[in-house]
Amino acid sequence: MTSAATDEQQPRSRSRATLLISVAIIAVLVIAFFIFASLYTDWLWFSQLGYREVLTTQWIAGSVMFLIGFFGMAIPVWISIEVAFRWRPMYAKLNSQLDRYQQVIEPLRRLAMYGIPIILGLFAGVAASSRWQLALQWINGTHVGKVDPQFHLDISFYLFALPFYQSVAAFASAVVLLSAIGALATSYLYGAIRLSGRELRISRSARIQLATTGAVYLALQAISIWLDQYSTLATSTSSDLITGASYTDVFAVIPGRAILAGIAAVVAVLFVITAIVGRWRLPIVGTALLLVSGLLIGSVYPWIVQRFTVEPSAKSLEKPYIERNIQGTRDAYGVAGVKEEQYTATSDAEPGALRNDAETTANIRILDPALVSDTFAQLEQIKQYYRFPNSLDVDRYKINGKSQDTVIAVRELDQKQLGNANSWYNNTVVYTHGYGVVAAYGNQRSPEGFPVFLESGIPAKGKLGKFEPRVYFGENSPLYSIVGAPKGADKIEFDYPAGDKQSNQNATTTFKGDGGPKLDNVFTKLIYAIKFQSEQILFSDAVNNDSQIIYTRDPKDRVAKAAPYLTLDSDAYPAVVDGRVQWIVDGYTTSSQYPYSKTEQLSSAIADTYTPAPQYPIDDINYIRNSVKATVDAYTGKVTLYAWDAKDPILKTWEKIFPSTVKPMSDMSSELLSHVRYPADLFKVQRAILGEYHVTDSDTFYSASDAWVSPPDPTKPKPAPLQPPYYLTMKMPGADKSAFSLYSTYIPKSSTDDRSILTGYLAANADAGSTKGQISPEYGKLTLLTLPKQDTVPGPGQVQNNFNTDTAVANQISLLQKGDTRVTRGNLLTVPVGGGLLYVQPLYVESTAETTYPILRKVLVSFGDKIAFEDTLDAALDDLFGGDSGASAGDSGAPSPETPTPPSSETPTKPTPTSPGESAAVKAALADVQTALTNRDAALKSGDLTKYAAADQALVDALKALFALEG
After folding, report:
1. Per the omega criterion (within 30 degrees of 0), is the bond before 908 cis?
2. Which segments within 427-503 are labelled E, that is strand?
3. I need a surface site. Which of 108, 569, 645, 890 has the fewest CB within 10 A?
């Protein structure tokens, strides 16, 4: 090759290298800017929300932990490699294979010497940064004031210190192990360790380094094994009978781990001796002894004790440890104070039996919140771009001075239904919010079977008073919206559909709150354009200096960011509070380290008809408290955290970490307190625990002769999910007054699901009261009604089977399902009234045609072995209890759906009787209607479908004649 060609290639290679370097620099800068944009938008969001310290604390803690992890890994690994290289034998004779390895590695040695520690450090730093919560809890841990029964240490040691110590020991072990591998590889490559036939030669420097590293590693293992003693109190090490140290753990596993920790410490000393004197025999023998001891002392001996000592006498030997487990579990799940009462349920439906339960009877909810969403939509959605959730919420409101159970839903925006109007402009700056709430009486229905609304319409009107109806933050809000405008500017946000014959103009509005970061400069617009990958944010003329961008709009997502230490309830529910729509979110503090407490998988424990079961549950807990009640303003998105359980040590710890972010419960208004309720997820976990741990006698617990489970939902096909708990206002047996409550039932635990015999009834007082700064002393009290073991009381599954197989009921349902209609069974409620257990189930009929929504047509009731099936709950109860139940149900004013009634805007009323002055023709027509109704009802009860059809046609003819006379 000529020199000219060589000179020509050198500039080309230089220009190519320069180009590659430039591209790499630009790529790094772009990536860095994207990372900065993400961090800066988080800064703006948290600053606007008022929780900047939550973000900065996480950043600082995460950064510190990253640096600790990075340097904690990188420096020891680098030192280990550097020492092994510097102390390598200078004149070692290597074999040809190692010579080739060195020739390949030597040009990259410096890169590897720094690059390997840096890469390992980066991985370690990222792993360590994710453990910032663990470190901060250890630093700020709060004493509980209770000690464990085995080691007599404060419970805080297990909640905060032990997990941190174990994490540090594991990290340090990994560092030492990787350092040893680095030293070993370097020593081998550079001749400090040589294999010559069967002879292994180790240089003095390598011996000292490796032996010292081995001593440190064994010392760490000694610490780790010692800490493992304490872990037995929150695991099932030797027996699946209980969680916590059992007999074998106390007398074999714990002492064995102490011995193994001592042996590991001795072996660490032997490695130190080897580093000094150069004899490898002692540490090798010691290591072998440790491995053999680990097998014998750690596994074989506990197995022998369990098999030949415990199992033959398990009931007596495990008794004190079962008692520990029962006490620990009941304390950790907050069920130690459950009030257990024997309830001898009568099965005789005597007339007047409900006279003493009139208030409970009047509040029985016949509106199923899981079924009426489509009905709400049909009647109150108003426009296609609104929607209601699939399952509505149950709350209570003071109506005319009386507490009223209410089914409530927020009318949220559904941009998917905009059709051709679906554009960035409409989705982002025009259709920005939902509008209003819709609420219906839980215990009423209209003559046609529709809900009776106490709040409805657009603009909203009803019994809930004046409140801000606009919903910018909800469970189905758009990903982001841009709102706000200068004073005097045209209003461009769609508010609600309006207009009349003179004008079709819809109402518009401008957001006036403080709901998101301001887009008041080009740079902020740019970073949000990057965040949401939308250049329109940067160029749209609808975005001005007074614009705000609102996002992260789901109430639970907002609370999760403001309080990252909380586990949130699966259901956030809306309430009209102090003139605002507020989302109320229950927050839990949890742990899996509470001594002697049974471990539950949280997501599995809360799974039921309303909450799907997870595929891979990994959220193990054995301690839970409803420590925080949070609210999210539906208009501004403001998040407020209230300390609901101020005694909870985990919450106290987090209040030290994030000071001033949680307000005292005394700051809650009386109106907000009146809408706080006992959370369903906590109740589900507690009912799962009490299925076994209602038993406080260790012998009964051991035999599992009285274990219960929640029944499967009888309205669902097999394999059915668990029946969910239900909110009802009722007076529990023995209570002084009615209270808004949450209840569930129990059946025997067995390998089959065919024993649907009621064994227990669990209820929680869910009413916090309405006195500012003071929770009702009855709130949260758990009452467990235990049914007699010698009597057979039908459970939900048996009652549903009786409903389904009753001939008269089946005949009526078959008539309801004639043509293009189907019958849907509503929630099966169980109410302890009349000295027994009353079952109530609404039946809905819906069309199978294009427009379909359920209408409440019938109510099924059961008491003992009797069944009644009528158009209204009031009529069904009277029929069930011999013609007079002794109390009126909430729908006592609702006539039969087939009976003609005058229009009503609120409460349905019975038909007005004819006056003496009415014509004889009208009287005759009314008489024909009454005769047809009587004949039809008689045919229905007798099951004669032919007579029923004839009477039904006669009723239609009579009604037509009546309407013709009145029209």
Report:
1. no
2. 434-435, 437-441, 453-456, 461-462, 470-471, 480-483, 493-496
3. 108
